[in-house]
Amino acid sequence: MVDTSNYLHFWGNSPESEEEYYKSQNIKASKSFYVSPRGISLFTRSWLPISSPPRGLICIVHGYGNDISWTLQYTTIFLAQMGFACFALDIEGHGQSQGLKAFVPNVDLVVDDCFSFFNSIKQKSEFQGLPSFLYGESMGGAICLLVHFKDPKGFNGAILVAPMCKISDDVKPKWPVPEILTFVAKFMPTLAIVPTADLLDKSIRIEKKKIVGGMNPMRYRGKPRLGTVLELLQVTDYLSAKLSEVSLPFIVLHGSADVVTDPEVSRALYEEAKSEDKSLKIYDGIMHSLMYGETDENIEIIRQDIVSWLNERCS
């Protein structure tokens, strides 16, 4: 049983500070706020290797209702230990960034925010000349593809983890609920009433990890907001119709037991994308939270698949 009585940090109830923890992991980490061109204050973090110069940049976008300060750090710290400089931001309405919690009224504006922040990192003198990669989980995978469409030659590749190119029918509200909600959303887009099951239960397999994920102080626990759901449905419809226009190198990773985003759409992305360099990994029996919610053994397999893919493109 996990002791959750004083779960102050993503690593547990250890009294050590963030700085001490990162030092013990042999990385350097920082956090700050970035003001996007439209004036939105966005919370950002970085994780860098300290034993050697970085081999590449990884620009990271989290999933819906998530943030960059909790379980996502298990992945970013690992990637930094593997020699990559990682940068991420809490998107509008998530984590410590500005905006109504879990309200995403316009994904295009979020894409612009990410694009601007990632470019500001790539333009730093210490990182110029390094290969740069997008990394997105779930909704973040969809945003990464939209960033790619905005600048098709801007990145050397993308790592797409259970990307939300289509929302699974298992978590969509059933007719006539969508039609009713669409009408109500025109007048009350911030209303949090969309009837869906808790995504934590549908994403994480390991019970003790489910408990830790639920302890995240930044996690949104309410029902999805009308405007956010409609925006995501429109975005996924748009993306599923434009899979053939994806041209950057990518690896897409998905669990066959995912009931949040559809693994068959990841398969369609692999088959339809015009990218000459593309890879697909479908993991049998694995759920939506590939990088945190599975057994440590399964996570290690997935991590090594990602690192092997990166190593081949950073040699």
Would you mind describing this structure in some detail?
InterPro entries: AB_hydrolase_fold, Hydrolase_4, MAG_DAG_Lipase. Pfam families: Hydrolase_4. This is Serine aminopeptidase S33 domain-containing protein. Helix 2 links the parallel strand 3 and strand 4. The radius of gyration is 18 Å and the shape is globular. The protein has ten helices and eight strands. The chain starts with 17 loop residues before the first helix and ends with a helix. It has a single domain, classed as Rossmann fold (3-Layer(aba) Sandwich). It is of the alpha/beta class. The mean pLDDT is 90. 43% of the residues are buried. 35% of the residues lie in helices and 17% in strands. It has an eight-stranded mixed sheet, with helices on both faces.
What would CATH call the homologous superfamily?
Alpha/Beta hydrolase fold, catalytic domain
What is the number of independent domains? 1
Please provide the ordered H/E string of secondary-structure elements: HEEEHEHEHEHHHHEHEH
Helix share, percent: 25-40%
Name the shape in a single word. Answer: globular
Return the CATH class.
Alpha Beta
Strand tally, please?
A: 8
Task: Write down the CATH topology.
Answer: Rossmann fold
Flag low-confidence runs: none
On the 0 to 100 scale, the average pLDDT is 90
**Which percent range describes the beta-strand content?**
15-25%
Q: What strand order characterises the main sheet?
A: 1-2-4-3-5-6-7-8
Query: Which structural class fits the helix and strand makeup?
Result: alpha/beta
Please identify, by name, the CATH architecture: 3-Layer(aba) Sandwich
Whole-angstrom Rg: 18 Å
Organism: Papaver somniferum (Opium poppy)
Protein name: Serine aminopeptidase S33 domain-containing protein
Domain Serine aminopeptidase S33: 53-294
